[in-house]
Every structure is written in C-alpha cells, then in structure tokens.
Amino acid sequence: MKKSLKLTLTGTVHSLFFRQFVKENADKNDVRGFVRNLEDGRIEIFLEGDQDSVDSVAAICKRGPQHAQIRSSEEKIEYFQDFREFKILGI
User: Fold this and answer.
1) What sections of the chain are H helices per DSSP?
2) Which SS3 state, helix, strand or coil, does residue 46 take?
3) Which entry of 19, 25, 29, 42 is annotated as an active-site residue?
4) Residue 91: its pLDDT value, please?
5) Residue 25 bears catalytic tag
6) Are 45 and 35 in contact (CB under 8 A)?
7) What is the distance between the alpha carbons of residues 65 and 52, in angstroms, rounded to a whole number?
8) Catalytic residue among 25, 29, 37, 42
C-alpha cells in the first residue's frame, strides 16, 4: 500500500548535513519526495512510497543523525503525488 507523509521537525537540524542524511536514508529505502529548510528554522520532509518504507524513514528522521537534536516533530498524512525521486530543495 502506498503512503504519503509530511514531517515537520524542530530542533538543531538546520544544516545541509541533516538534509543529506534524510536523502541518503530515503534513497536506501526507495522513498521519494523532498526535504527542505523552512524560513523559521524547521525542516519539512515529504515522504512517499510503500507504507513500511515511509514509516521506516520517518522514524529515522525523527531520531536524526548523531549530533542532531530533534525537539519536536509533527506528522500529517498527505495525498499521493507520485514523485519520481527524492530531492533536497532550497527555501
């Protein structure tokens, strides 16, 4: 079953390293979508693919890499948009 999920993360995550971490994990799990910094310092992540893969990447993102400090996360189920790849976007 396909799933689309938007995550918004708050914490010490505002860096290219974090966005690259998300992309690498999305690519490993065949998840498509995007990650970008928001103007207010949060990170927005849109994930879509098989339900188990999306759930797995979402859990990884909420933990973050070793030096990230995630203070809060919000999840919202979204409409499937059929992205072709996973991209790192600008603001």
Assistant:
1) 16-28, 51-63
2) strand
3) 19
4) 60
5) no
6) yes
7) 20
8) 37
Instruction: Give which of 6, 77, 86, 11 is closest to 42, Cα–Cα.
Output: 11
pTM, 2 dp = 0.92
| Tokens matching residue 20 | 């690259």
Domains and CATH numbers, the chain: 2-89 (3.30.70.100)
Place 52 in a pLDDT band, splitting at 50, 70 and 90.
Answer: very high
Q: What is the C-alpha to C-alpha distance for residues 18 and 80, in angstroms, rounded to an integer?
A: 24
**pLDDT of the residue at 69:** 87
Q: Which of 49, 20, 17 shows the shortest CA–CA distance to 33? A: 49
pLDDT tier at 5 (50, 70, 90 boundaries)? very high
Instruction: List, for residues 6-47, the tens digit of each pLDDT value.
Output: 999 998 765 668 899 999 999 999 999 999 988 988 999 999
Cβ count near 59 (within 10 Å): 10
Q: Can you read off the two tokens belonging to residue 51?
A: 């339900």
